[in-house]
Structures are given as C-alpha cells and as structure tokens.
C-alpha cells in the first residue's frame, strides 16, 4: 500500500515555475505584513501625539523631531503636520493592504494547484 509520501510525481517546468512564484509571493507577503504593522504602529504614535497636543496651550510652541533635530512650531502648524503625516501613512498602508490581498489570492490559487498535484509531499505553509 502506497501513501501520498511514497508516490513519485514528476516535477515539470511549469510546476517549478509555480513553486518559484509561490516562494517569491510568500517572501513579499511577509515583507508587506511587516510594513503594514510598522505603519499601524506609526499611526498609533501619531494618534497619541494628537491626543497629547490637546493639552497644549495655543501659544505654547511644540517641539517636532525632524531627522536629528527638534524644530519649534506653533500648535496649529504642528497639528497640520501630524494630520498630513496621518493621511500619507494611511494612504500608503491602504495601498500595501490591497497588494497584500492580491498576493494572498494568488498564493491560494497556487497552493490549490500544487497541493492537487503533489499532495502532502510539498509544504507550502509557513
């Protein structure tokens, strides 16, 4: 009696290309997840910053870190700067999330295709 592990399956050029594509997509998938997590953390920090700025007086200068230096801005300019950053990061995060969804869909198609041919003799999970 042969099990799925005992069965010899020939790997065609197309199969190898599908395996390689899956590997590349999987790598990009994990890179995107990391970038999205970083954007989420940055958005949380900016949200915390906005909350803290509520406590500032209107005439009190706000120190903003730019590269290695602090820049003194009035409260309104600092709020506008934070809002602009939030919009930019949100847009970037949304773009990456869309790419992540497309990659995930393609990976699912490749998984089904490869598992149908190779069964348990191929491992496509993390």
Automatic annotation (TrEMBL):
One term under GO cellular component: cytoplasm
Keyword flag Oxidoreductase: no
Protein name (record): Prefoldin subunit 4
Subunit comment: Heterohexamer of two PFD-alpha type and four PFD-beta type subunits.
GO biological process assignments: protein folding
SUPFAM superfamilies, A to Z: Prefoldin (SSF46579)
Pfam families reported for this sequence: Prefoldin_2 (PF01920)
GO MF terms held by the record: unfolded protein binding
Assigned keywords, A-Z: Chaperone, Coiled coil
Function description: Binds specifically to cytosolic chaperonin (c-CPN) and transfers target proteins to it. Binds to nascent polypeptide chain and promotes folding in an environment in which there are many competing pathways for nonnative proteins.
Similarity field: Belongs to the prefoldin subunit beta family.
Entry coiled-coil feature ranges: 79-113
UniProt keyword Flavoprotein, yes or no: no
């Amino acid at each position: 009696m042969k099990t799925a592990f005992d069965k010899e399956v020939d790997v065609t050029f197309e199969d190898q290309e599908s395996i390689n594509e899956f590997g590349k997509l999987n790598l990009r998938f994990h890179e995107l997840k990391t970038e999205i997590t970083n954007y989420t953390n940055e958005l949380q920090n900016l949200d915390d910053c906005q909350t803290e700025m509520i406590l500032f007086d209107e005439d009190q200068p706000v120190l903003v870190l730019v590269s290695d230096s602090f820049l003194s801005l009035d409260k309104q300019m600092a709020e506008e700067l934070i809002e602009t950053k939030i919009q930019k990061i949100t847009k970037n995060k949304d773009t990456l999330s869309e790419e992540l969804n497309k990659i995930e869909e393609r990976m699912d198609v490749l998984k089904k295709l490869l598992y149908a041919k190779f069964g348990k003799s191929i491992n496509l999970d993390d």
